[in-house]
Amino acid sequence: MELSTDLILELSAVGLGLIYLILMIKENILCWFFGIASSFISIFLFIRTELYSESILYVYYVVIGFYGYNLWRKGAKGNGLPVTRMKALSYPIWIGIGIVSSFGLGYFFSQNTDAASPYFDSTTTIFSFIASYLEAKKKLEGWLFWIVINFATIALYWGRDLNFYTILTVVYFVFSIVGYIQWKKSYQAQMT
């Protein structure tokens, strides 16, 4: 059995992505290195499968990986970056930015490329930008964004026959719930 380039890229990115997620849930700073490597490989795969918004997202993941690593390394007064909560007013602002940006990016790709599912792809991409930023800042609510995003992304990947990414995203969906629970415990422990 000969492995296609797409399958090799997909399997490599998925394996590294799983390691990233497990380490992220454990708040282990090494997670960022696995996330960067997985994202770098994913860029090429998504270009090959015409999910252009996803490829842009994974470029962002590489950048946010370095940003997150730097934040976590510096931490709060050298003791590591603590898990914190978003302010209530942040929710509608982030959601509003996400909706407007999703329509803008979706429109661009629908008019200028052969993108598959340009609006759906753009929506999961834009909200992933937001969730990744919140994750780098160690905001507990970032996991809530991920739960919704991962659920939606399952359908996106399934529709492009990215079967291993679909399976990975199902795992991400479940682990997003686990991540929320773990980080909530960490947040509550800090408050006592």
Q: Spell out the helices and strands N to C.
A: HHHHHHH
- Principal-axis shape equals globular
Number of E-type strands? 0
Largest β-sheet summary: none
Ends apart, CA distance between termini: 56 Å
Produce a short descriptive summary.
It is built from 7 helices and no strands.
Describe the structure.
The protein is mostly helical and 192 residues long. The protein has one domain (5-82, 100-191). It has seven helices and no strands. Helix 5 runs antiparallel to helix 6 (142-159). It is globular, with a radius of gyration of 17 Å. The mean pLDDT is 89.
Write the layout of secondary structure elements.
Layout: H1 5-25, H2 31-48, H3 52-74, H4 90-112, H5 118-136, H6 142-159, H7 163-191
Please give a handful of descriptors for the protein shown.
192 residues; 7 helices; mainly alpha
